[in-house]
Design goal:
Elements: E1 5-8, E2 14-19, E3 24-31, H1 45-52, H2 63-71, E4 76-81, E5 86-93, H3 97-110, H4 115-133, H5 136-148, H6 162-167, H7 170-180, E6 186-192, H8 196-207, E7 229-234, E8 240-247, H9 256-267, H10 273-281, E9 285-294, E10 299-307, H11 312-328, H12 333-350, H13 354-368, H14 374-383, H15 386-396, E11 403-408
Parallel strand pairs: 2-6, 7-11
Antiparallel strand pairs: 1-2, 3-5, 3-6, 4-5, 8-10, 8-11, 9-10
Helix pairs in contact: 1-7, 3-8, 9-15, 10-11, 11-15, 12-14
Length: about 425
């Protein structure tokens, strides 16, 4: 990665530019707000605002005009709401940087939030929620969130519920927008054949009307609920969807690189242990993988599999067997070396894209207040040892931290926590 150029405007907006020789420029605008910033009665507001910013601004008063501004030059743009971050992004040809910057800053600063559009989008979001509720693979993760983060914003669907979305008022929506959509709570990151001065000169006058304000505060993670715990949802479907997870570690934890390598060994790619054991050797699943996620103050390490409802016990035993193997035996240096090359290679391949470079910098700046270079991260990965992975496995993959959710057509009744042991 080339040298990252950085500047903070007088209004607090942080700018980053990653110079790169590419045909495109990627632009990301990152706002430090997500679903965990919401009160119970506000569930889904951050996601609702994300939708509304595509409905028109004072200068582009319709969704069509906004989309044509980017798609009319062959570009793409979209947005995403997470637990702690909302992202708006665009990727355009390298000659159209100013259009992308103009559209994104216009959206975050000048959206109309018209009542009639709010009512239409309310129905759209409820249909989005309905789609998730009709998708068993989505439901199993929603149930897992509820189980791991009970009575907490982290335990809710990012989109909210049908009830909360139906009840959100214009005043509620505007209150959250006023509080968080301020320059000091934003990061703008650009990657491509551009320079920092050009970006700053264009953006500064377009963001000057948004002043600083209070943009802090979310609920810390709830107290740890000792496991093992399990929730089962019966559905008349062909496949059972299974998730097993433990609480992980925060984004800035010194063991995060060891956990990243643990996850690669365990369940990333067709050479991972879960793929080879659960799919290739035992034929229990078509889809099986592990994952980890990092929050400011906690995280998750987990495994998903789609299996025959009659073979859930076999799949559970195989998955936990691989988890326990990481606890009991150090990963061989040969396996660890392969996993390191897998992670490093996938990282570098992703960073051939202009927006991926902008996102690499923008996400770190918004959430961590610092930016690690690719070279630094790769060197941290190289430092991970087999003992590091075993230690992290022993610390995190514990029976008293096991949480499991199942969605499927189940004929057996009983206490599913009985199978949650090593």
């Amino acid at each position: 990665m080339n040298t990252i150029e950085t500047m903070t405007l007088d209004n607090g907006l942080r700018l980053h530019v990653v110079p790169m020789d590419s045909y495109s420029v990627g632009v990301g605008l990152f706002i430090r707000v997500g679903s965990r910033y919401e009160a119970d009665e506000d569930g889904g507001i951050a996601h609702f605002i994300e939708h509304m910013l595509f409905k028109g601004t004072k200068r582009r008063p319709s969704a069509r005009e906004l989309s044509l501004a980017i798609e009319g030059i062959g570009g793409i743009f979209n947005a995403n709401t997470g637990r702690e971050l909302t992202t708006y992004w665009a990727k355009v040809g390298r000659d159209h940087l100013e259009i992308a910057l103009d559209v994104l800053t216009d959206m975050v600063g000048n959206s109309l939030f018209e009542e009639k559009e709010i009512e239409k989008e309310r129905r759209v979001i409820i249909e989005e929620i309905n789609e998730s509720l009709d998708t068993p693979e989505d439901v199993v993760f929603l149930l897992l969130d509820e189980l791991m983060w009970p009575s907490h914003p982290l335990g809710r669907d990012i989109a909210g519920t049908r009830e909360t979305v139906a009840g959100l008022s214009h005043a509620q929506i505007m209150a959250l927008w006023e509080r968080f959509y301020r320059p000091a709570n934003m990061v703008l990151s650009v990657a491509g054949p551009v320079d920092l001065e050009t970006v700053a000169a264009f953006v500064a006058p377009r963001m000057k009307t948004r002043q600083n304000g209070d943009h802090t505060g979310f609920l810390s993670v709830p107290p740890f609920m000792p496991g093992p715990q399990a929730v089962v949802r019966n559905r008349d479907i062909e496949q059972a969807h299974l998730c097993i997870a433990c609480r992980g570690i925060p984004r800035d934890h010194p063991d995060r690189f060891a956990l990243r390598m643990l996850n690669a060994v365990l369940g990333e790619g067709m050479s991972s242990r879960l793929f080879l054991e659960v799919r290739e050797r035992q034929g229990l699943a078509y889809s099986v993988y592990s994952y980890n996620s990092f929050l400011s103050d906690s995280g998750v390490i987990g495994t998903y599999a789609g299996v025959d409802p009659q073979r859930i016990a076999d799949a559970l035993s195989a998955i936990l067997g691989e988890w326990d193997r990481l606890r009991q035996q150090p990963v061989s240096r040969e396996d660890l070396s392969r996993a390191k090359e897998f992670v490093k290679g996938r990282t570098l391949l992703r960073l051939e894209d202009s927006y991926a470079n902008a996102s690499w910098v923008g996400v770190q700046s918004a959430l961590d207040d610092e930016v690690r270079t690719v070279e630094d991260v790769l060197s941290q990965i190289d430092r991970v040892t087999p003992d590091d992975i075993q230690r992290v496995a022993q610390n995190l993959l514990r029976e008293d931290s096991l949480h499991m959710t199942i969605v499927g057509s189940l004929t057996e009744e009983g206490d599913w926590t009985e199978g949650l042991h090593f």
